[in-house]
Amino acid sequence: MKGKSNLKNLHSDKQIKKSTSNFILNSIIFLLAVIIFYMSYSLYSNLSAKNSTDIEIRKKSNPSIIQVEVLNGCGVSGVADTLTDYLRNHNFDVVQIGNYISYDVEKSIVVDRTGNMINAFKVADTLGIDHKNVIQQMNNNYFLDVSLIIGKDFNNLKPYK
């Protein structure tokens, strides 16, 4: 009888140790899961806050510099170069020159990329583009303020008058 009692106690001690170790392991797993969740949330919030403030920081750092992209949408060679020189002479920072996706653009268009339409209107006024041809297409992937798409009406712009 005494042997059975010791066997039961031994079995009961093993169960207690096993349940204690299971509790400790489960607690560690839960704690690690909480830490991973917190770190993931922190990383996500930092990245999303950085993306939304990049444009604001750039605007506040030097509002007098307007970065412009000049795209040829009329197909006439040399027009983008002429307008680039004109804009640079009027203190705009032309950071990119290239061709638009098509050459069928009838009227020149100024596109605000950062949510600051004042910069787009400054470009339009400098070139003599009507304000009704100024649009807003914000894009956080662009690191410039304004895109200029040159249309077939380029002869009516100030550099050509």
Give an overview of the whole structure.
With 161 residues, the protein is of the alpha/beta class. The chain folds into two domains: 1-59; 62-160, Alpha-Beta Plaits. It has helices at residues 2-61, 79-89, 117-127; strands at 67-72, 93-99, 109-112, 134-136, 146-150. A five-stranded mixed β-sheet has the order 2-1-5-3-4, covered by helices on one side. Helix 2 (79-89) links the parallel strand 1 and strand 2 (93-99). It is rod-shaped, with a radius of gyration of 32 Å. The relative contact order is 0.14. The model has no long low-confidence stretch (mean pLDDT 85).
List the helices and strands and how they pair.
Elements: H1 2-61, E1 67-72, H2 79-89, E2 93-99, E3 109-112, H3 117-127, E4 134-136, E5 146-150
Parallel strand pairs: 1-2, 1-5, 3-4
Antiparallel strand pairs: 3-5
Look at the structure and give the CATH class of the largest domain: Alpha Beta
- Write the H/E string, N to C: HEHEEHEE
Domain module tally: 2
Structural class by SSE content = alpha/beta
Helix content: 40-55%
| Mean model confidence by pLDDT | 85
Number of helices: 3
Please list the strands of the largest sheet in the order they lie side by side: 2-1-5-3-4
- CATH architecture descriptor text of the largest domain: 2-Layer Sandwich
Question: What portion of residues belong to β-strands?
Answer: 15-25%
In angstroms, what separates the terminal alpha carbons? 115 Å
